[in-house]
Amino acid sequence: MLRLRGHAPRSPRRARAHGTLAPKNFDARSSLKKLYKPQVPEYFNFARNVLDAWTEREKRGQKPQSAALWWVSESAPEVRWSFEELAFNSRRAANVLCGPCGLRRGDRVLLLLPRVPQWWLLNVACMRTGTVLIPGTCQLTARDILHRLQSSRAKCVITDESLAPVLDSVASHCSSLHTKLLVSHKKREGWMNFNQLLRTVSSDHTCVETRSDDPMTIFFTSGTTGSPKMTEHSHCSFGIGLTVNGRYWLDLTERDVLWNTSDTGWAKSAWSSIFAPWIQGSCVFVHHMPRFDTTTVMQTLSRYPISTFCTVPTVYRMLVQEDMSRYRFPNLEHCVSAGEPINPEVMERWKASTGLDIYEGYGQTETIVDDACKVVPQGTEGNLAIRVKPNRPFSLFTKYTDDPERTAQCFRGDFYLTGDRGVMDQDGYLWFVGRADDVINSAGYRIGPFEVENALTEHEAVAESAVVSSPDPVRGEIVKAFVVLNPAYKSTDYDELTVELQEHVKRVTAPYKYPRKIEFVDQLPKTVSGKIRRVELRNKEWGRS
Predict the structure, then answer these.
(1) What is the pLDDT of residues 322-381, one digit of tens each?
(2) Cα 133 to Cα 29: distance, rounded to the nearest angstrom
């Protein structure tokens, strides 16, 4: 069990008048080890073994009447698919991929779509065809997309009208790319049209037989010492491993409706908008919501029968600043949060308004070791790590794709190092302290300082820079840049230059990465070998000695 440092212990979901409910899938935390005993078969495919199994139960009348996917939008008719309809449409989508697109098992597919039903169809279609899905956020710039296409050697890219011109601007530099698939009602030169093809292909498709440890998906993750890396996950790591999330953390049943607000480009969307809920046969609720809006969230929780709400701490912080007395959430039973620590006062205000606790999730199984990989005594801060010998957990990511050196750096002795720090108390509870690396977690977005520093350095005014996190009451952390100027710019108006540099970063890389704070300095703290001491700057920002 992981607790966040400084947070009061919380009990399981108790019976309530209008507040926290008792858990549905377990009696007490101590029983989880006895209940959770996953078996990993030699062959496994989530579409065949899980989704098609729910379809058969629906046909036999063995499952409550509920949607598998419920999508709403303020600008389009809502979509409600049963598991049978999801299976039917995803088989057709699979035929688009392996037919007109010419994709084969193991080919990589870059998917850049917002929260639209086709995103879910294509996720399942890739499972059915054995193609390896690479999701990405729609906020990526041309440079971000080019890096992902060249690094992954993706053979197909799928996106909508908004990003198609950006893809066209870089496609000629990607020798592996041979298929561009457009999700749109309009045609575009040089692109196949997914919506049109979906209407013409057959709904008969035989799911490929994938081994449990075959690659299923790749996520790009930001690091501190280079460009984003590719993390590979197998069919079983998500398809079976996330059972613990769906059954025990989200505590879902076949009658539940789960709303997870995560962007489709992040792994959290796969965890809580596909695998965890559909393992449990629950309904995945989606609001298109191109831009986040607190009123829309409040109205949606009031208007629809959402029983489980999953979002990042930033959203909870924004919601509790609203007049929550204007809203009632009659169906809401369980609230969870992940991605970053949530403030205790936010949890208290949320519970005062809703009667519900917020349950925090930490996405890894933890052991605390020191730098020499020796387990430290209780009460001593150490590295959060996962024991991988003699038996490696199947739910752990497989590797950094095409990067054996980077993969090897994550493993030391008998452990996989998570990059986080923590303390185990005398009762055996783990308390999260912070990350060991320099990645910035702003409103749930993980931002590598190296990417922002590179973007800044491209501006002629910047000699060098260092990027760290800075505390923010709403986002938790924001990006702050310490900038050393070239001599010719040291007499420039700093306020004007700050805006100019911020706009420059927005143009060069994804807009969410831009530094919301910039401080101009004469020099940066460095080690004897010349490496920038970001830790010193970060400690200054956070008021640490």
Answers:
(1) 999 999 999 999 999 987 777 787 899 999 999 999 998 876 434 576 677 788 899 988
(2) 34
60, burial (CB in 10 Å: exposed 0-12, middle 13-18, buried 19+): exposed
CA distance 250 to 179: 38
pLDDT of amino acid 224: 44
- CB-based contacts of 461: which residues, under 8 Å, 6+ apart? 485, 486, 488, 489, 492, 497, 500, 501
Residue 73, class by beta-carbon neighbours within 10 Å (0-12 exposed, 13-18 middle, 19+ buried)?
middle
Q: What angle do CA 443, 444, 450 make, to 5 degrees?
A: 95
Write the pLDDT tens digit of every residue in 79-126.
Answer: 999 999 999 999 999 999 999 999 999 999 999 999 999 999 999 999
The CA distance from 250 to 255, in Å, is 13
For residue 300, give every residue at least 6 positions away whose Cβ sits within 8 Å of its Cβ, in sequence order, or none. Answer: 72, 259, 287, 306
Sheet of strand 334-338: strand arrangement = 79-81, 69-72, 283-287, 257-260, 308-311, 334-338, 358-361
Task: Give the pLDDT of residue 462.
Answer: 92
Phi and psi, residue 317, nearest 5°: -60, -40
- The DSSP output letter for 207 is P
Is the distance from CB of 510 to CB of 472 less than 8 angstroms?
no
User: What is the secondary structure of 8-33 as a DSSP string?
Assistant: PP-------SSSPPPPSS-S-GGGHH
Mean pLDDT of the chain: 89
Question: Which amino acid does the sequence have at 499?
Answer: V
DSSP symbols for 469-510: EEEETTTEEEEEEEEEEPGGGTTS-HHHHHHHHHHHHHHHS-
| Token digits of residue 406 | 């980077």
The DSSP code sequence of 310-361 is EE-HHHHHHHTTS-GGG---TT--EEEEESS---HHHHHHHHHHHS--EEEE
CA pair distance 104, 129, nearest whole angstrom: 7
How buried is residue 534: exposed, middle or buried, by Cβ count under 10 Å (0-12/13-18/19+)?
buried
Mean pLDDT across the stretch 74-82? 96
Burial class (CB in 10 A: 0-12, 13-18, 19+), 118: buried
Cα Rg for the chain, rounded, in angstroms? 24
- Asked if 467 and 453 touch (Cβ cutoff 8 Å), the reply is yes
122 Cβ neighbours under 8 A, 6+ residues apart? 93, 97, 109, 111, 113, 133, 158
Cα–Cα distance list, 439 to 233, 237, 253, 512, 529 (Å) = 21, 24, 35, 14, 22
Distance CA 74, CA 290 (A): 10
Tokens of 363: 């996405």
Q: How confident is the model at residue 522 (pLDDT cuts 50, 70, 90)?
A: very high
- Rounded to two decimals, the pTM is 0.83
- Distance, in Å, from the CA atom of 543 to the CA atom of 151, rounded to the nearest integer, reads 39
